[in-house]
């Protein structure tokens, strides 16, 4: 059984991110693995996949393809003893649950998930023990931009002295992170995909048909993940709701009722997607910066945990009634 260097095996599945894969491959080739990395760029363009490939290289640097496949499976199932994968959570009945768990349990999600201080403390405990099967412990912080302030401050202490470990933070934007956290990480930039790379990724995943949907591709803006998510959201959104939003009523009571319906019928991720959809729709059909301004205010308010019904009522009144 032959072995191959990890850098020739690790990143074949990553499409359209040559700079990121080149930087990480170079780190593997030279053996200069940084204590912390920041994989930053829009959502849905391969950051998580690239992180998984890098983890596979770090956890099995000189092993065969067969062994690499087993390591890959353990990474995907998050059951490798030297890996801790942290992602934003919801609080439900005194416990922290992931987005997937919340969806499976049918939990009504009224606010976006966050990475909380309890999870950062878990990272510190995890790094406090030696690695069991590898030469280092590995931590992935997925959705790092969602960290609460207390969590971000606690993470700084860990980044200062990570020990024999590598921490990989994945974020959509540097602006949402503390500058001191960014400064302690080696930055790996990710970019939106070119049309040919988009077509390849969507085709490989069985979503090639959405390439012809101008609305979805307009929302995606070079992100295959966003394209797939928008397709699924559009399929699940009640058609009568979209019709009402396309042709907003002029009556304040009807607008308030519409705002109540959105906040009660759609969970937090769906409401944030709807904001993006409406921004795209109204710009395409009306070229109204006034409407885009109010929708952007609504997006920021939802991300700041303002009561969703109030956000939608104020927003719809602002854009639905004549000035």
Automatic annotation (TrEMBL):
InterPro entries membership: DNA_Rep/Repair_Clamp_Loader, P-loop_NTPase
Domain of life according to the entry: Bacteria
Pfam families linked: DNA_pol3_delta2 (PF13177)
UniProt feature coiled coil, ranges: none
Residues spanning the signal sequence: none
PANTHER family given in the database record: DNA POLYMERASE III SUBUNIT DELTA, REPLICATION FACTOR C / DNA POLYMERASE III GAMMA-TAU SUBUNIT
Name under which the protein is recorded: DNA polymerase III subunit delta
């Amino acid at each position: 059984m032959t072995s191959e260097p990890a850098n020739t095996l690790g990143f074949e599945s990553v499409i359209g991110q040559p700079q990121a894969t080149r930087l990480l491959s170079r780190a593997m080739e030279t053996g200069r693995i940084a204590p912390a990395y920041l994989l930053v760029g829009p959502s849905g363009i391969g950051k998580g996949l690239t992180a998984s490939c890098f983890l596979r290289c770090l956890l099995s640097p000189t092993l065969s393809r067969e062994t690499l496949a087993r390591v890959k499976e353990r990474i995907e199932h998050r059951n490798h003893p030297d890996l801790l994968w942290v992602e934003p959570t919801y609080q439900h009945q005194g416990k922290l649950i992931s987005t997937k768990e919340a969806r499976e349990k049918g939990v009504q999600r009224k606010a976006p998930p966050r990475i909380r201080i309890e999870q950062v403390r878990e990272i510190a405990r995890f790094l406090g023990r030696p690695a069991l099967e590898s030469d280092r412990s590995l931590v992935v912080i997925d959705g790092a931009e969602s960290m609460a302030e207390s969590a971000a401050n606690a993470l700084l202490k860990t980044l200062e002295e990570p020990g024999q470990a590598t921490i990989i933070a994945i974020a959509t934007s540097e602006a949402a992170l503390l500058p001191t956290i960014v400064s302690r990480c080696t930055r790996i930039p990710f970019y939106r995909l070119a049309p040919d790379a988009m077509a390849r990724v969507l085709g490989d995943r069985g979503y090639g048909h959405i390439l012809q949907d101008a609305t979805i591709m307009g929302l995606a803006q070079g992100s295959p993940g966003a394209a797939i998510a928008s397709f699924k959201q559009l399929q699940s959104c009640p058609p009568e709701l979209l019709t009402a939003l396309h042709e907003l009523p002029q009556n304040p009571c009807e607008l308030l009722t519409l705002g109540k319906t959105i906040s009660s019928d759609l969970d937090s991720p769906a409401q944030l997607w709807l904001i993006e959809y409406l921004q795209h729709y109204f710009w395409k059909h009306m070229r109204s910066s006034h409407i885009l301004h109010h929708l952007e205010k609504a997006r920021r308010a939802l991300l700041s945990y303002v009561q969703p019904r109030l956000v939608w009522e104020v927003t719809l009144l602002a854009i639905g009634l004549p000035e």
